[in-house]
Structure to design on (508 residues):
């Protein structure tokens, strides 16, 4: 004999079947039994053990597609392309590839923590033929999530959050990344000051010529940062990190930024400080940046004219509080340079003032060729948390370039190159090494390119030798000049003293 439980289950499933038939029936005869519907649903609800949640495509104002709907669409795209029989392909604005999602009336299942749920893509709307720019006016699309009521807690408390998080991640992965730059204010009136193009720089950490352990250190630092949302919250710090890249021109600072952006899949905001009118404008630009982005200020020393100012400072006063003095200089700079009134304190505020905490998950990168000339206040830890020196090409870095440029991992010419770089300590930037390794015609093989590099390195050595000799000569001449001046001065003083003594004798 059937137990009571089984009886209820059977009744429940029969009612569910009835309800299903009724829904299909309704699609063909939409006006039938409208007044009965509330009673039917109430009766049905008593036995039907499932809960349904709908997520509409357009909710709220401004015809903006709902974030939840888009998140679910992305989340389901990974499963639906494998499981659903009818798929729909879409190009979404800002997405780099086609988004496949299940077609209307399709259903797929999903499992989470041992709980099964059903997702259905649905559409409701009029059959009337009309024209509208907004599909929401005629058709209302939505996703319907169905789950057993005993799983309510798991779904509400964890599953939905999981869907949104995963969906966001897929969305971010699929989106076209952008390179923003700030344009001079006058041409844009009150509109947003960032303009953008698609970011397509091919540099990656694999193509970056650098010691392997240094690369790994930077990569793990970036990964740690991107996964530390809760940690930053716990320690009460805004979720951002500052990097200072310094080194001579052509050592890969800009390339490193591109590699970082590609590694983290972040957007890049290239901030040109000289076109920023004042501190308020700078703050506004910061607010307009999105999360998951790298804000770059290249050649910070040139942007704020700190080097020139610093020279004057050294002449004027030997010691004193660095920050105050530079700030003073920058105030002066305001008068001299009508175009930009950004001050050091404005920039410091930009990096770690209260506004900088808006949005979160941002990396700020400064690059400079002259790290010693920068204000210590600007680059202290906490503002620029990680200082990375980009230096001349070492043998390990050369091997990366040889592999990338020539597909060569071993060659007998490597020994000579190693000797020149390590024993002779010849300094050549990765940019120059790369240029020498680059085949200049179809006929040029790897060996020709490597030999060209060896020649160039030797030339560099001669050049360096010449430079050292020249510098020594200049120094010697300077010393001699100094000595001459000193002797002249001593002679003058001696003469003066004799004259004074003679005067005194006469008076006596
Ligand atoms: N470490 C490197 N690894 C791979 N390629 C490099 C590296 N350094 C330089 N290059 C090559 O040299 C070119 C110039 O490098 P990059 O613009 O990154 O130098 P930089 O340090 O930013 O110079 P600058 O100080 O003048 O801005 C790049 O296009 C890249 O191809
Ligand atoms: Mg650069």
């Amino acid at each position: 004999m059937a137990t009571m439980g089984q009886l209820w289950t059977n009744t429940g499933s029969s009612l569910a079947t009835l309800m299903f038939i009724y829904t299909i029936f309704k699609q063909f005869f939409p006006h039938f039994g409208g007044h009965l519907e509330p009673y039917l649903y109430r009766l049905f609800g008593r036995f039907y053990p499932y809960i349904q949640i709908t997520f509409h495509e357009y909710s709220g104002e401004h015809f903006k597609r709902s974030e939840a709907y888009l998140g679910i669409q992305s989340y389901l795209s990974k499963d639906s392309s494998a499981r659903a029989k009818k798929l729909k392909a879409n190009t979404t604005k800002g997405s780099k590839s086609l988004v496949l999602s299940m077609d209307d009336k399709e259903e797929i299942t999903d499992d989470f923590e041992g709980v099964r749920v059903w997702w259905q893509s649905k559409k409701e709307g009029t059959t009337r033929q009309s024209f509208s720019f907004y599909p929401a006016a005629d058709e209302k699309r939505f996703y319907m999530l169905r789950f057993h009521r005993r799983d309510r807690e798991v779904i509400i408390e964890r599953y939905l959050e999981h869907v949104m998080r995963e969906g966001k991640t897929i969305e971010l992965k699929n989106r076209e990344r952008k390179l923003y730059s700030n344009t001079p204010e006058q041409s844009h009136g009150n509109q947003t000051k960032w303009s953008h193009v698609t970011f397509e720089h091919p540099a990656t950490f694999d193509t970056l010529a650098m010691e392997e352990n240094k690369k790994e250190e930077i990569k793990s630092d970036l990964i740690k940062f991107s996964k530390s949302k809760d940690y930053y919250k716990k320690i009460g710090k805004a979720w951002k990190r500052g990097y200072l890249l310094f080194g001579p021109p052509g050592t890969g600072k800009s390339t490193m930024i591109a590699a970082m952006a590609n590694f983290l899949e972040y957007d890049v905001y290239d901030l040109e400080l000289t076109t920023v009118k004042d501190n308020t404008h700078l703050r506004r630009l910061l607010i307009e940046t999105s999360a998951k982005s790298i804000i770059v200020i290249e050649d910070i020393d040139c942007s704020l004219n700190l080097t020139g100012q610093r020279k004057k400072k050294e002449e004027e006063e030997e010691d004193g509080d660095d920050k105050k003095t530079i700030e003073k200089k920058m105030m002066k700079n305001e008068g001299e340079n009508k175009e930009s009134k950004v001050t050091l304190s404005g920039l410091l505020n930009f990096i770690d003032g209260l506004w900088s905490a808006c949005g979160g998950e941002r990396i700020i990168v400064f690059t400079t060729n002259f790290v010693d000339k920068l204000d210590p206040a600007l680059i202290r830890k906490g503002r620029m948390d990680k200082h990375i020196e980009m230096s001349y090409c070492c043998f390990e870095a050369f091997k990366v370039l040889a592999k990338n440029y020539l597909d060569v991992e071993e060659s007998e010419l490597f020994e000579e190159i190693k000797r020149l770089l390590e024993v002779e300590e010849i300094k050549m930037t990765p940019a120059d090494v790369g240029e020498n390794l680059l085949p200049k015609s179809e006929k040029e093989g790897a060996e020709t390119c490597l030999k060209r590099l060896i020649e160039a390195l030797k030339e560099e050595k001669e050049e360096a030798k010449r430079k050292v000799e020249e510098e020594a000569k200049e120094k010697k001449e300077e010393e001699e000049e100094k000595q001459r001046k000193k002797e002249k001065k001593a002679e003058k003083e001696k003469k003066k003293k004799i004259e004074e003594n003679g005067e005194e004798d006469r008076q006596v």
